[in-house]
Structure formats: structure tokens, C-alpha cells
Amino acid sequence: MRPLLANARYLVLIAVIGALAAATCLLVYGFLQGIQLIAGVVDYGAVSSKGAKALALEFIEIIDLFLMGTVFYIVSVGLYSLFIDSTLPLPDWLKIRTLDDLKNKLVAVVIVVLAVVFLGKAVTGDADLMGAGAGIAAVIAALTYFLSVKSGKAAEK
Whole domain around residue 51: which residue ranges? Predict the structure, then answer.
């Protein structure tokens, strides 16, 4: 039973490959969408303040794709380094030694994604900006509290 359980960790490769495929897809799609947007702007040629707001919103949506791709990449690298190879050469800020490290990195990226979502709503002049802002702020506050409690428990050890 011991060898079976020891080698069962390689099942995590399914999640690693899936998350890496999702990251690649989102990043490539965002890049292609950005190229297409730039080509459309150059082709259209007209400049206006209304067009600038629409353009800014479309670029914010592309940034959102890049951030989501980054989330999936961090999940992929984190699971791989936790279960398969802890010697994976990574920058210090991306080194993941525990499942809590992975969760903390994900929470931090989710907070940034939420901020970008709010920025997109602000640029479009969303009618319910206050409601959306309050909801996003509540989630960010809860996630920040989660991170602070986790770091407080880690400091006690």
C-alpha cells in the first residue's frame, strides 16, 4: 500500500497539466485579442473620448484575461512544486513550500483581479458602481483578514 500511496501523488499531474493548459489558453487568447484590438484601432483611425473609454475598457478586459491566466499558472506551478518536484527553479516570490503558501498566493492574485473588475465597472460608468464596489470591498476585506490570520498563526509557530 505504501508504494501505491507514494506514487499516487503523480495523479496531481492531471491538475498541473490542466491548469497549465488553461493558463496557456488564457494568455495566448488575451495576446491575440490585444493584437486584434490594436489592429482594429489602427484600421478605424478615428479618435474620440467615447472611443477612448471603450478602448480602455477592452484593454482592462484583456488584462483580466492575463491575470486569470497568471492565477492558473500559479496553481500549476504550485501543485507541481508541492507534489512532484520541490526543487523547481522559481523566483523567491513564487516559491511554494506548503498548501497555505499556494492559497496565500492565490488570494493575493484574486484581490488584484477583483480590483481590475471594479476598475472595469468604473470605466464603463456602471449604474450600480456603489453596490459592486461594496461587494468587492467586502470580499477583499474578508480575503485580507484571511491572509492576516494565516500570517499571524505562522508567526506564532
Answer: 2-156
